[in-house]
Amino acid sequence: MTDREQQFKELFLSEYNRMYKAACILLGDEDEAKDVVQDVFAQLWNGTTPLREESQRAFLLTCVRNRCLNIIAHRKTEQEAIQLLTSEAIDSGTHDNEIIQAVSDYIDQKLTPQTSRIIRMHYDEEQSYKDISRELGISQSAVNKHIVQGLRKLRLTFKSKEV
Questions:
Q1: What string of DSSP letters covers 59-91?
Q2: Ranges of H-type helices in 28-55
Q3: pTM over 0.70
Q4: Taking the chain, what is the end-to-end CA distance rounded to the nearest angstrom?
Q5: What sign does the dihedral 154-156-159-161 (CA atoms) show?
Q6: pLDDT score of 22
Q7: Banded pLDDT at 105 (limits 50, 70, 90)
Q8: How far is CA 144 from CA 41, 94, 110, 118, in A?
C-alpha cells in the first residue's frame, strides 16, 4: 500500500462516521447520506477536490454539508413543480388524468429527446441522478441541468395556460 493509499484509508476511517452522521441529520435518509459521503471521498481520491491537512475535518464536513444542501434544494424544486402542476389542475377544474396526459404530451413533444428521457427515467422509473448519469454516460450535474430545464419549461407552460 502506498503512502497516499494509507493516508486516504486513515482519513476515511477517522472521518467517515462523523461525515455520515452529519449527512443523515441533514437529509434524513441513510442511503442518501452514504452516497454523499462516498461522493466526497471519491472526489478526494480522484484528486478533483484538494485537501489541506491542517483543516481537513472542517473541509470534509463542509463538503458534506454543501452536497446535502444541493440535494435538499433539488427536492424542493421537484416538490414545487409537483405542487404547481397539482394546483393548476385544481384551479382550472381539470381532471387529474387530463393534466397528467397534457404534461406527458408536453414532455414527449416539446422537450429535447435527452431531457425528456432523463425526466422519464427520474420520475417514471424513479432512478437516481447517479443511476441516470451512469446509464447515459453523462455527469450528475448534466442530469440535474436537464431536469431543472425541463421542470422550468413545464412550470412556465402550465402556469401561463389552462390545460
A1: HHHHHHHHHHHHHHHHHHHHHHHHHHHHHHHHH
A2: 30-46
A3: no
A4: 62
A5: negative
A6: 92
A7: confident
A8: 21, 30, 18, 9
